[in-house]
Design brief:
heterodimer; A: 72 residues; alpha+beta; three-stranded antiparallel β-sheet; 2 helices; 25% strand; flat; B: 134 residues; mainly beta; seven-stranded mixed β-sheet; 12 strands; globular
C-alpha cells in the first residue's frame, strides 16, 4: 500500500486549543475560514471568505477517551 | 474507499498539549455545511452536537429522548434522529443522538447502523483506513 499523506490539523488549530468555540475549515483542511461562539456566525463568516462548503468542528473536548453508550 | 488518518491536538487530563492521529472523515449534507466525524467503534450509537443538528435543519428536542453515558460515567440527555449524508462516494442513512451537552470536538460515528453499512479496516501504523460497503 502506497503511503498516503496524513492530514494535519495541529498547526491550524493550535491558536484555538482549549477555546470552546466552533471553527469552519476549508475543504482541504489547511485553513481556518472562520471561528466563533455560535455555529451560525461561523457559517456566515465563512461564506463571506470563501465559496467553498465549510467543514465544521469544535475546538475543545472534555474527555480524552469517550465511548458513549445509551440507556433508552 | 481509502482515507488518511488526521493528526489533531489533544489536551491530557493534566492539561498537557499533545497530538494524536485519529480516523476522521468529512460527512456532507446537501446544501448545508459539512462536519468532521471520528469513526468510533467504542461508541454504541453515533453522536453529534445539538447545534450541528439545528444547522442541518433538525428540531432536536422532537427526537426520541435517551440518556447517553461516556467512560467517565457522566450521563447527558440526547435525542435520536435519522439523518442522511454522503461519506466520500457513499450515501448513508443512520440514527444519530444529538445533544447540547455533547463535549467532543467532532461527531462520533458509532456501531449502530453505521457499522452495519460498512466494513472498516484500520491500518493505523500506515496512516490510513478503508471503508468498504457490505
Amino acid at each position: 500500500m502506497k503511503k498516503i499523506k496524513e492530514i494535519d490539523l495541529t498547526k491550524i488549530l493550535k491558536p484555538y486549543v482549549n477555546k470552546d468555540i466552533w471553527v469552519a475549515l476549508n475543504r482541504s483542511q489547511t485553513r481556518v475560514l472562520a471561528s466563533g461562539k455560535t455555529i451560525n456566525e461561523v457559517v456566515e463568516s465563512a461564506k463571506k471568505i470563501s465559496n467553498e462548503k465549510p467543514i465544521l468542528m469544535r475546538t475543545k473536548q472534555e474527555y480524552e477517551s469517550y465511548a458513549p453508550c445509551y440507556i433508552l | 474507499m481509502i482515507f488518511s488518518y488526521t493528526r489533531v491536538n489533544s489536551i491530557t487530563p493534566f492539561g498537557k498539549l499533545s497530538t494524536r492521529k485519529v480516523p476522521l472523515v468529512v460527512i456532507d449534507f446537501k446544501g448545508k455545511p459539512s462536519y468532521n466525524c471520528i469513526i468510533d467503534s467504542g461508541a454504541s450509537i453515533s453522536h453529534m452536537h445539538g447545534d450541528f443538528g439545528r444547522c442541518i435543519g433538525l428540531d432536536i428536542e422532537s427526537g426520541i429522548r435517551l440518556s447517553s453515558k461516556g467512560i467517565p460515567g457522566i450521563s447527558f440527555i440526547s435525542y435520536i434522529h435519522t439523518i442522511r449524508f454522503k461519506l466520500g462516494i457513499f450515501n448513508c442513512k443512520i440514527d444519530v443522538a444529538f445533544s447540547d451537552d455533547f463535549k467532543f470536538d467532532v461527531g462520533l460515528l458509532g456501531r449502530e447502523r453505521f457499522f452495519d453499512l460498512f466494513k472498516i479496516h484500520f491500518h493505523q501504523r500506515d496512516g490510513y483506513f478503508e471503508i468498504e460497503p457490505y
